[in-house]
Amino acid sequence: MLALRKTNAAPGLEALQIPPPAPPGPGEIGIRVAAAGICGSDIHAYEWTPGYEFMAPHMPLTLGHEFAGHVAALGEGVEGFAIGDAVTAWPTIGCGRCRACREGRNQDCQARRILGLHCDGGFAAQVVAPASHCFRLPEGVDAEMGALSEPLSIADNAVEVAAITPGDAVLVLGPGPIGLGIAWIAQQRGARVLLAGFGDARRLDCARRMGIAHTADLAETSMAEAVRSCFGEKADRVIEATGVTASITDGLSVLRSSGVLVITGIHSRPLELPVTAMVRNKHQLRAAHDTTWAAWPRVLALLADPGHRAQLGLMVTHRLPLREGLRGFEMARRRDAVKILLRPGDG
Length: 347
Prior knowledge:
The protein is α/β, with parallel strands linked by helices. It folds into two domains: about 1-145 and about 305-345, Medium-chain alcohol dehydrogenases, catalytic domain (Quinone Oxidoreductase, Chain A, domain 1, Alpha-Beta Complex), CATH 3.90.180; about 155-285, NAD(P)-binding Rossmann-like Domain (Rossmann fold, 3-Layer(aba) Sandwich), CATH 3.40.50.720. Helix content is about 30%, strand content about 25%. The chain contains twelve helices and 18 strands. The chain has helices at about 40-45, 100, 145, 150-160, 175-190, 200-210, 225-230, 245-255, 275-280, 295-305, 305-310, 325-335, and strands at about 1-5, 15, 30-35, 60, 65-75, 85-90, 90-95, 115, 125-130, 135, 170-175, 190-195, 215, 235-240, 255-265, 285, 315-320, 340-345. Helix 4 (about 150-160) packs across helix 5. The protein is globular, with a radius of gyration of 20 Å. The relative contact order is 0.16. The mean pLDDT is about 95.
């Protein structure tokens, strides 16, 4: 079968023919992949930016951790699923033994494995995942929307970490798929949301079509002016989803006293913080990475609503057969798209 593989610790990716995965073992499900999204983490792995060295011992491996498809095979002891069920999966697999795993926090397991980053993922016709990490898609949710559930669960977790409440003034930095999801979910929860980008006309237009009321292009205005114009005051919450280190200190400059800034981007450079100003302003700096078990039912419930699906589906701007996956990666690098889905079954 065709797969997009990371084969060495250097920039690049290869489209290779490989054998199908072994049949699912006890407690596992074999999934026939119908759609898989290109994520910012995939681009980092493709470019081999600092912070992804952990992948090297696991190569060669198939990338892809945002995927959905249909159950093709059931391992011994699997219950609650049937052949043909439409499913997605949380790709983060804990060891099952440590304190974090025992407490249901496999995202905090220090021995965790992530499908598509530590072991074979969804940029292929088939993938095997633990049944315990698989979720049946609600009625009306196709594989394309199912593939959005993982990045939306990341966005949901960031909103939770920010502790957003109705009426909060929330600045979201970065209109990529994660930032779009954060802004949309925060607005659904009653926050006043401003989504800001830099030279991101295509993505900011997507945000407005998704119903995100307030956007700003920081190539045309300052962050301080955008926040003042939108809220009339500093932000209660700032959520960074850019991966651009300077955006963190910029975000702190428009955060109110005792406000919360959440970092979600992956950064290749260190950051020097204005610590004294942070202390005097009682700024709370937090990080959100991956997601939680609790996020998944919330996200799947959102996707079950046809109106929500119509808005969230606007993030998908390009659909390519898997054989054109390398072209899709280059498009994503150039920001020529919002969300690109690869479809192994298309040709």
